[in-house]
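Hi everyone,

Forwarding the result from last night's run.
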Amino acid sequence: MTFKETVQSMTAKEIIMAMVNSLIPPPVIPVDMGTFGTTREEPAVKFLGITVIKPKVKCYGCAATNTICKIAGKTFTIDNIYNREGRADFIGTDTDFLGDFEAAIDRLRTGNVRMYNTYARFGGFAEIQNVINLPCLNDNYTTGQLNKYKQLADAQPVLQKVEV
């Protein structure tokens, strides 16, 4: 089953829980919610004027990046995370669908279920119902905040059918 088919076959609860489970410490990819899947060079650590640790380029992801990795069963690297085309090729999906899914999860992690649902309709995957008040997940998100998203997942109807 392709990534697109997998996501389109998931219930809203499964999608929400994929996001939550991908962010339970340690997340799949180090989280920097402001980078949206780009990379950056970590600074070298110096001690008494001597470089102790060499700088490394590290992948950074957001909730969407981690959710995609969780669902696809693959972890992005610096070679394929930088642009949507590279990410889509790596997980075997089309860029338009990936863009809709990334945008949906980006909106979900900010608590904006209405916009998540807009992108879900574009991508043909499950919409979220029974909305509760959600916190915005930033880099310093807490277990308590993730638990609010678990509550949202538990509030979803048991059976959902998505028309594709």
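Residues 3-154 form one domain.

Cheers,
N.
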